[in-house]
UniProtKB/TrEMBL annotation:
EC number: 1.5.5.2
A GO term for molecular function: proline dehydrogenase activity
Top-level division of the source organism's lineage: Eukaryota
Protein name, entry field: Proline dehydrogenase
Length: 255
């Protein structure tokens, strides 16, 4: 298996294609994190100038701020680019309850605070510098924000806009939503990139590929998550209505 992973990573590295393994239930995450960090050291070199391998952080877990800080410190100490993918998490129903923030607001705060730390490339009261590293030292970092939460996206955009105005160096950033979900957010991100000229940020739609059998686990997970996505339906409906009305007015206005 190790040889197959290295072969896949070598092929991705040749084409500068990012690899973003998902996190799983917490019982298996330490093992996943161990090998993604080893692969980050091998492939996310400063000489290459970009991250190939990322580690996924599920922000509904209380341990994430400290784990993220430890991994960022490791990247700084060992001289490679940290690949950070932030998600909220997909195993709420099966994880031991004491591992998870007590409220959704706790998860939201964790996601937004972790986002702020990596976007600004600064240690914060939430993502604290470990004792082994200087508080003024922060690694190079590439960031992947996988979220359907409009508020989190806008907070990230606000940080980037301030950095752009100040002429700061912007870390490589991608926003991602699933194909067929939160399309109004994806469209807004595309337009924002065009108007603000943020060349380091991209909007990505993620989809599965393969036969139904090959993709079954992914599709079942998405079906389960769609029940929670019902809370976003009203926002999506309003966004679609607003866009439809804009197009109608444009047609009649030009006739």
């Amino acid at each position: 298996m190790h040889a197959a992973i290295i072969e896949a990573c070598d092929a991705a590295a040749v084409k500068n294609v990012a690899l973003l393994p998902g996190a799983e239930e917490e019982a298996t995450n330490p093992g996943l994190e161990k090998w993604t960090l080893e692969l980050q050291k091998r492939y996310n070199t400063l000489e290459r100038g970009r991250a190939i391998m990322y580690t996924t952080y599920q922000c509904y877990l209380k341990s994430i701020p400290d784990r993220l800080a430890a991994h960022l410190a490791k990247a700084r100490e060992e001289g490679y680019i940290a690949g950070v993918k932030l998600v909220r998490g997909a195993y709420l129903a099966s994880e031991p309850r004491h591992l998870i923030w007590e409220t959704k607001e706790g998860t939201d705060a964790c996601y937004d605070n972790c986002t702020e730390a990596v976007l600004k490339r600064q240690w914060t009261p939430f993502v604290k510098a470990p004792a082994s590293i200087s508080a003024s030292s922060f690694p190079e970092v590439d960031i992947f924000l996988a979220t359907h939460n409009h508020a989190s996206v806008r907070k990230a955009q606000a940080i980037r806009n301030v950095q752009g105005v100040a002429g700061e160096k912007l870390p490589r950033l991608a926003y991602a939503q699933l194909q067929g979900m939160a399309d109004e957010i994806s469209q807004e991100l595309v337009q924002e990139g065009k108007t603000k000229g943020d060349k380091e940020a991209r909007a990505i739609k993620c989809m599965t590929w393969g036969t139904t059998t090959e993709c079954l686990n992914f599709l079942l997970r998405r079906a389960s998550e769609n029940r929670e996505a019902a809370m976003r339906t009203e926002d999506t409906r309003k966004a679609m209505g607003k866009e439809l009305w804009r197009r109608i007015k444009r047609v009649f206005g030009s006739s």
